[in-house]
Records
---
Amino acid sequence: MTSTFPTRPAERPHIRATAADPYDRGVARGEQLREGIPAAAEVYDRLFALGGITPARVAEDAARALDDIGRFRPAARAEITGIAQGAGVEEWRVAALNARTEILARSAAVPPGECTTIVRRVLEEGTAPRTFGVQTWDWHIELSARWHTLESRGGRHDVVGLTENGILGKMGVNSAGLALHFNILGHRRDGIGGVPMHVLAAVVLEEAGSVAEAVEIVRSAPLASSGSFALFDETDAVLLDISPVGVFEAPSEHDTFVRTNHFLTPVPAAGEKSWLYQPDSGARRAFVLDRLTRRRPATVDDLPELLVTGPGEPPVTCLPDPDQPLGQRWASLATITLEPATRTASVLDGTPADIGTRDWRILTAD
């Protein structure tokens, strides 16, 4: 089966929302995505249907997720309500986008995407520690035109980064210098019934002023799904296995964290949906770790090239296979670096192999 892939926008949308009230920030976001949110919802409708998830079930899951969000953070629910109002769509539609990972956990036909993250904590004698990170965001090629860079100001901390149309947050850095990379993991108990991972990422970036504060927020959240947050501020870094059976800190490799899409701690690993990612996830992580034994990146600019791969190598640089059906066409939709010291997120609209042929979009949370 062949397919014509969607066209990347000539210029990636950048959404700015500035307001002290979260509902008003949501309205501003929704107004700028009046076409983009229904377009994203249409793709997810197809993915839900492919996974055997009926529209009635999607609406029910979305309503439950919205209630869970409201109990955890009323402000986050208010922002979702504002996005729906601004975009002119039903509130449950935006809630379904924010809970898309948890809803898709019901499906065996649409496995999650693959991402690779590196976070470095450089310790040099006589100088303060420095931290920086890079990530590929790999997802369905059908959504290549359905994401944007974001600048959200007016909450406790300003936030810059990238996310999908209608979704509160994903990867980014805030004005306090707290950065977050986000990978999806898979546990047998994943589903609806807690705070969606994308909403939790947005809450952490808006509220946390340090790694310690971020970890406290994550541990306080009711969880029914899985993910990994690589959290780092100017001097500290931690990598979390987040799951319905608890939150666990993963070990570093010589002050470097490498994350793909499997659990790195034993308790959640015992219930992992290993068939979703393995052996690919393990191969990608081992490949990157091997590169890091020979190259020790000293700055954020040294990181992205470590994620460039080609034929015969694990697909850290992920290119879509046009002969695969809907739900199986993965691509590295974006590459993002984060640097807490400068409060900077740099976003490349493409794969790490596109470095040098496309310009980075530089966003600063200060």
---
Amino acid sequence: MKVWHFSELAYHPAWEKLGAQLRNVVPNRLCDPKVAADLYHRYLDEWVLCDELGLNIMVNEHHATATCIDSVCTIPMAILARETKTARLLCLGMPIGNRFDAVRVAEEYSMLDVISRGRVEMGFVKGAPFEVTPANSNPADLMARFWEAHDLILKAMTTHDGPFNWEGRYFHYRQVNVWPRPYQQPHPPVWLTVNSPESAQIGGERGYVIGSLNTGYVRTPGIYAAYRKGAASQGRTATPDRFAYMAMVGVGATKEEGYGRANHILDYSRTALRVGAQFAFPPGYQSAAATAQALKWPGYGSGVAMRTMQLRNGRQVDVNSATVDEFIDAGICFAGTPDMVFEQIKAFHDHVGGFGHLLMMGQGGHITHEDTVDNLTLFSKEILPRLAELGRAARAAAE
């Protein structure tokens, strides 16, 4: 099993001042560039440490928000491509449906792949619903635009005999000719984020790695089953290395220390949807049935989108008031001593039928740099070697 450390690069100093709105309509006068500079360097130091600890690195991007100041994911990837030597570099991901220059995406990923000598993994994502407004994109045709961008990016990376013309529905280029071409052939591995069985089945049909983010004990098995169905329809076997799962992870020398770290990191879940409801459900972004269900969420009428999570017994709890134990029960967090964390990961791994990648959010919220370093180091020394054995067992079972 491969493990990837993920941080959203939160600008948490502004959270208390902004209250219920952390996205879209937040004035950037509340972002002190000097504080932001310190945070960027701190987060980069923690990612570079992963190279020494045997962990891989995951980045993402968001826009107009205090929950994530990584607004251009390829910038930290470029720094890390030079400063690290062995860690794989995953962007999960690039919201290509909201990008208006798909060829530029192909150029950026290709250049990063060359600088890193073939360590880049490309994540293509639909993009969060509340980022439709800042991008001024049309939510009704976002997926059609996404797949055209996907096709154009891969063609740009794999065409080596001179320029080609592209006249699609959304993108028009007289000459496409990407220099340099990517280091990995035919192109870096492709990942998709999925949140439903429908999108997972498409991932399976294409053979891509899928990342399910905080889908928990209840939803993940159905998502993985749909991927396997999609893979089988194309004559492929869905091996564990096609599945990735993201969870918050807090490790400590004692249960209390691990829980304390996890509690800080879980502020990711508590703040992710602190956004006005007018931005959370743009018409056409998802199916009518999914939108109708979302409108029933607690707090919608107050103008703020809120979220509940489902425990293993099906009970719904508010993420804002849930305990660390409830997050563990939901399968969204693994926390405690190294032994406890390994057993929690193993239990979840077995429940969903195995996965080959753990996307570990080892930093979040107000956790200190010192606690983050200790969290990552403990995980690397005490848990990572045991996960390798777990991964080998899963591969043997799949074969």
---
Amino acid sequence: MKATKRVHDFKALELKLTEDSVSPHTIYIKEHAVREHTADKPSGRTLFVVNLPPYVDEKGITNAFKDAGTLRSVQIATKPNDLDAKSQTNKFIQDEKKSTFKVAYLVFATVSQLDKALKLTELRPLNSDDYKVKLGMSKWVAEHNNSVVMSKTLKEQVEVFMKKHDEAARKAEKKEKTLEEEDDEGWVTVTKRGKVQSFARSEKVENKIMAKEEKNKKRKELKNFYTFQIRESKMKHIVALRQKFEEDKKKITQIKQSRRFKPF
């Protein structure tokens, strides 16, 4: 079936698992045109694809656009301009992938191949002779097997991660020390670390600091300044006087009962 429908400059194409698929899925494509292009999404060679089903992977989408030409890279994300892929490279523990519809950025080898992709009226199936998209139980089994990391591989990954982390920490510390040095005019750049080194707080020191902060807070607090504060202080004073009066009455009653009351 030829696709002629366009939605906001998008072109609709049918995506099928196999040639015999009865109910194909509709995806939408257009050229990735933004003001600022990056090296991984070059201008004139990047195709933007939306409404990709959760089961579509890089190999499957490559098979679908095989008639257009050679794909240099395929970037699949949960939403446009998603930064999760970049942030994941700095994480050791990867976040769990969500099963949701996705978007993709397809980078072709040449500009002519992108033009050819935009003129496509029909896509190849996701499945090919040498590759099958995993679905259902087989997909869950594959995801589980990929999530299990051997102890030797895990150790190597930890060592590489810690090596990069230590190197980044050393560079940051060296940069701060460089900034703290005087320049030619005698100026010193103030950094967040500062000159005073931190110290370990014990429970005694912590309590002392908290007491000092509480004392300063009470000293700065305005008392009997506002009308409602004066009214509340008067009410509290009256309540305290009544309570003292009741306590004195009880004491007098107790003294009378003990026959030790001598008013004269």
